[in-house]
Amino acid sequence: MARRLTRRKMQAPRDTITAQYEDKDAPSLLLKLRGPDRPGVIGSVTTALERNNLYVAKIDFSTGVGEKGQANYNMKIDARGGSRANFQEVARMVEAGEMGEQLGAEKDSRIHLRGSYVFHIDVYTPDLPFLTASVASRVSMKRKSGGKTERGSIVSLYGITHNSEGPQGGTAYFALRASIATRECDVSEQIIADLQKWAQSTIEAVGGTLLILVPPPKRR
To answer: What is the pTM of this model?
Structure first.
């Protein structure tokens, strides 16, 4: 029988975050977050979970454009693993406002898709620690472009963990798909090169793959 703890909710200055713990066949914590999009949102939350011995069983992240061109995000994360104390610690972080503080005070994103360079990635690999955070941090890293500092922006991201067939459920695999936008073409090229270098030294070493789809350039 499912046992549900009290729903925790915290209104951060810019984000609304809720955490709901359920103790069913496999204990899980459902995090729901929304607010103005900016660099580091995905990486901050997934890193906090991993540091508390929880893994991302499923993540669904999307963005939309609000008033004055402001990009807003919605994110849901199903976190599993760890002990009851780990789940309670993350729920405490949400209630105390610490999770909101970790999202940072970076400048809000205002990338307009109509004039952006967009590419897509597909990751499939045996599960490893900090996978989602590793991808997100490389996208949001500051990069030089024409004398200016630019970053990429994750427009949408979906990831899920599943077990392959085999004894005791087999190997846990993680599949992730994301669409990434940048204002400048050379920033996209830098991010792609960084992701490829990361893949070669991590996921490819355990039999994982990284596929990158770059659509034909658009006239601007």
So the answer is: 0.86
